[in-house]
Design a protein that fits this description.
Elements (H helix, E strand, L loop, with lengths): L3 E4 L3 H12 L4 E4 L13 E4 L1 H9 L5 H4 L1 E2 L2 E6 L2 E7 L2 E3 L2 E3 L3 E4 H13 L4 E4 L3 E8 L2 E7 L4 E5 L2 E3 L6 H5 L6 E14 L7 E6 L9 E7 L3 E8 L8 H16 L6 E14 L4 E2 L2 E3 L5 E2 L7 H22 L3 H30 L11 H14 L2 H4 L32 E4 L4 E3 L9 E6 L8 H4 L5 H9 L5 E6 L9 E5 L5 E6 L3 H11 L16 H8 L1
Parallel strand pairs: 1-2, 1-14, 2-10, 5-16, 14-21, 25-26
Antiparallel strand pairs: 3-9, 4-9, 5-6, 7-8, 11-12, 12-13, 15-18, 15-19, 16-17, 17-18, 19-22, 20-21, 23-24, 23-26, 25-27, 27-28
Length: about 550
């Protein structure tokens, strides 16, 4: 079968090609530029725990070393500390993971090196597409440039940014809000009073502070400073920005310390959502499908989640033929998740950025607003938490065989330690993104038993037979415990780490039905002149 064509070699396109390659699917990565990344210290990304680990699994394991994990989060209003949150350690009963902060070009360079080293990824620079044609068996595109040519692919994914050529060629609308927020940004090297901690300072008590300024640490003693600007009208000159920098550093340190200014910029954030994310065999991902960023929300985080979600579905379709429901579920899940994030931001903006009104009379409102603002930055709540696909078309109907555990169906599973049938032990997340389902048995005591004994004891033989009979490839794992689960609970997990269902004991019939639902049901022919997904038809076309 033809490779998948990925248009755009930014972090999302690179991640998608690497995720496909990890599941045995070749891709051609077309980029209209030279395939290099210009260093911009002021252009940074904040990766949540799940997306940072995804990047590491895809071939950039040093992302945790080249980025900086925040040790804490501080919120200040005027001269008062409102909240101090330790990160990366247990705070009360809730584990708050530390985000990883790094320059975007560092992330792109690491992913690009991994892609260049992979046999299944072909990178083609200076290739801007100008024609896109689809038929029931694949996609054909024409590129212009030094090597102007035609390319043939089984599927195509547009990861080509906010001004996506793919989206325009597919005639997909991109409605939304323009200039939701504006920020003046500076990257500088200096010593600030909170090494390793990110700071959000609202209503700072100096003249040029504006409504809000954040300081987020980067590796090497570098900080990214963001000043919230009025929605329109204020021109930020170089002199005005230098004044902001000096006033802010003096306000925090008592006097302006020595600093090395590395980069500056003014960014305008928009909120937009493509009407459709799939058009026959073509898909949109990343900024081509959505724009967000206000209140600390992270557009790149969502783009990486797009890539992970779509990759296993395309891989299943490429290897075994995928049902329309499986491929449609990408839009149903990811568009709904991003729409929910945008809706939460749009509902919060009038509260946090609007006039005082009644909210100024509500006791404790400042602390509540601070919590809301922190959510987007720290990956919590509606503005930042990893998505759950509870209403996915791939969710199986609930039956009496299902049981409740600490993870709701559709939510990301807990990263417990697991043992494979060959005796290898790892974290559960290390088994993700390999293109197959995971079946996890909760069996206390297996960690101290000889594997030869527990493989043939109790419910294991029956579970092995049930897993072998599933309609999709699955890996059997065993764990000592899982939050909220009793002994002999069986978990069915998707390739991207979201829980399909949990069962009270070994239930072969119900397990089969849930696995069939998770793969979108059997591949069926739907030849309406526009889309045919019958596996045998595609195989005949290749041959």
């Amino acid at each position: 079968m033809d490779p998948v064509i990925v248009v755009g070699s930014g972090p999302v396109g690179l991640a998608l090609s690497l995720a496909l390659a990890a599941q045995g699917v070749p891709s051609v990565l077309l980029d209209e530029g030279p395939g290099k990344d210009e260093p911009r210290p002021a252009r940074t990304v904040v990766l949540r725990e799940d997306t940072a680990e995804l990047v590491a699994r895809l071939g950039f394991p040093s992302v945790h070393e080249v980025g900086l994990r925040w040790t804490g989060w501080r919120s200040v209003r005027r001269k008062q500390l409102v909240r101090a949150v330790p990160l990366g350690e247990r705070a009360g009963a809730v584990q708050l993971p530390a985000p990883v902060h790094l320059p975007q070009h560092t992330l792109a360079v690491g992913l690009r090196a991994a892609a260049a080293a992979h046999d299944l990824v072909t990178m083609v620079p200076f290739s801007r597409i100008d024609t896109l044609e689809q038929d029931p068996h694949g996609v054909t595109v024409h590129t212009r440039g030094p090597g102007s040519t035609w390319w043939r692919g089984s599927y195509l994914v547009g990861c080509d940014g906010a001004r996506s050529t793919v989206r325009k060629l597919l005639d997909i609308r991109f409605p939304g809000r323009t200039a939701v927020e504006r920020h003046a940004v500076a990257a500088l090297r200096a010593e600030l009073p909170w090494p390793g901690e990110a700071v959000l300072h609202r209503s700072p008590p100096w003249r040029s502070g504006g409504a809000e300024v954040t300081a987020r640490p980067l590796p090497g003693g570098v900080w990214r400073l963001d000043w919230l600007l009025p929605p329109r009208g204020e021109l930020v000159t170089p002199d005005a920005l230098i004044t902001r920098i000096r006033d802010t550093l003096e306000g925090w340190c008592g006097e302006t310390p020595a600093y090395d200014l590395l980069d500056t910029g003014v960014y305008t954030l928009h909120h937009r959502l493509a009407r459709r994310w799939r058009s026959e065999r073509a898909f949109l991902a990343g900024d081509a499908a959505h724009l967000l960023g206000a209140l600390g929300t992270q557009g790149l985080d969502e783009g990486l989640r797009d890539a992970e979600n779509l990759a296993w579905k395309l891989a299943h379709a490429w290897h075994q033929g995928g049902s329309e429901q499986l491929l449609d579920s990408y839009q149903a899940e990811r568009r709904a998740a991003v729409a929910s994030r945008l809706r939460a931001a749009d509902q919060s903006l009038p509260i946090l950025r609007g006039g005082a009104g009644l909210r100024a009379l509500v006791p404790g409102s400042a602390r509540g607003h601070d919590t809301l603002l922190a959510d987007g930055h720290l990956g919590c709540g509606p503005l930042g938490a990893p998505p759950s696909y509870a209403h996915s078309p791939l969710s199986p109907p609930s039956t009496e065989a299902h049981t409740a555990v600490g993870t709701l169906p559709g939510a990301p599973v807990a990263d417990v330690r697991v043992t494979a049938t060959d005796g290898e032990t790892s974290r559960l997340r290390d088994r993700l993104d390999r293109g197959h389902l995971l079946v996890v048995l909760v069996a206390p005591g297996t960690g101290v038993w000889d594997r030869r004994h527990w493989l043939t004891a109790g419910v294991m033989p029956r579970l092995v037979d049930a897993v072998d009979a599933l309609p999709a490839q699955a890996e059997l794992l065993v764990t000592e415990s899982y939050p909220g689960a009793t002994a002999h609970t069986v978990l069915l997990v998707r390739p991207d780490g979201h829980l399909v269902a949990a069962f009270s004991g070994v239930r072969p019939t119900e397990l089969y039905a849930a696995a069939d639902a998770a793969r979108g049901g059997a591949d069926t022919a739907q030849d309406d002149g526009a889309r045919v997904t019958e596996s045998s038809d595609r195989t005949a076309d290749v041959n």
